[in-house]
Amino acid sequence: MGLSRTRYFERLGGSDTPVDRLIDEADRLITLGVTELACRLAIDSASFERAAGNLLRAAGLSISAESLRQLVEHEGKLLLAAQQAEQLELDFAASDCKTSDTPAGHEVTRVYAGSDGVKVPIITGAEKGKRRSKAIERRRRLPRGVRRRPLPSARKGADQSYKEFKIVTYYDQHGTHRWVRATRKDHRVAGKLMRQGAAQLRLRSAEQRIAIVDGADWIRSQLQRNVRCLDATVLDFYHLAEHVHAARRIVFGEDNQAGKAWAEQLLHGIKHEGYEAFWSALSQTRAGLRSPGKRAAMDALMHYAAERRDMLDYVRCRKMGWDIGSGSTESMCKALTRRLKQRGMRWDADNAEAIMALETLEQTTGWSAWRRCRANSMN
């Protein structure tokens, strides 16, 4: 266990030790197993204080919450660099993603692609200024002779309290195999991750390749540019239903039973009869409306559907045995930001990205590959 019997960080000076020296010493003295345990506890705990207490009980390793935070965030940034350089070995490929969920029950290889944006709480420049002022005030109140470690250089905060991170994932029919990445950068970087994942998985070797997305323009655009071997790009059925019910509430009223029946019939039609039946029903409803507001609501729904017509072939999906919901991608958005959205928390964007990178290892059973990568880098 490396330092299971040694109060290593206290010996280094605890939280007074500069992080670069702490990390250099940790690379030599803390085993990869202990580092992994520290990271797993940190991303599963509500705070670094609680994680430090659990680490003491689990491994006998005494470490301050601040030192643990520095260690974990540093490990996450190393992982991000390795992911970007494609240094992690995958334990599966597209050819391993087999399923018998087909019309005739024959086994095929099938891979789904997904992507989404998710909001992460980020600390603003104003908040950073308040925290620094409070820290300075606390230092002034310390008795004379008490050691005061220098405050770190002020880091620039964000201009907004929330920032959209991009999630990219590939997975098989049953969720046994998954490839997940996250980035705090823009849609173009997300597109590069899409291309990287397709190359690493050898996506072209799969017999069936389907993207299920929420219809956002940036996702469709990046898939078209970076993953050209897709057999189909499908609009998540739940998102279509959201737009249908939004129009229904305006046209028929919130709790109108006839309106609810209309929406259910409409959605049943596109799922079992196809786009033409769906469009015909919309057109008939639109023709009978007189209110400008109701017509505008129906026009918005028809425009939304027409723009995504090539994504609405649910009849084909049913015949092929394909999913029409993006639940796996949605669950990744929740899982990767779970640690970041604890009550009252705000993060620097790079540290949030590092924590999300570590969570991808949990979601993809990737810790063993990361240990091998770290061991190779230390040799």
Description:
This protein is an alpha/beta fold and 379 residues long. The protein has three domains: 8-85, no CATH class; 90-123 and 158-232 and 326-364, Nucleotidyltransferase, domain 5, CATH 3.30.420; 238-311, no CATH class. It has helices spanning 8-12, 19-29, 32-44, 48-59, 65-84, 125-140, 187-201, 217-226, 237-252, 257-272, 275-287, 292-307, 314-320, 327-337, 349-363, 367-378; strands spanning 98-99, 108-121, 162-171, 178-183, 208-213, 232-235. Strands 1, 2, 3, 4, 5 and 6 form a six-stranded mixed β-sheet that branches. β5 (208-213), α8 and β6 (232-235) form a beta-alpha-beta unit. The longest helix is centred in the N-terminal third of the chain and has 20 residues, at 65-84. It is globular, with a radius of gyration of 25 Å.
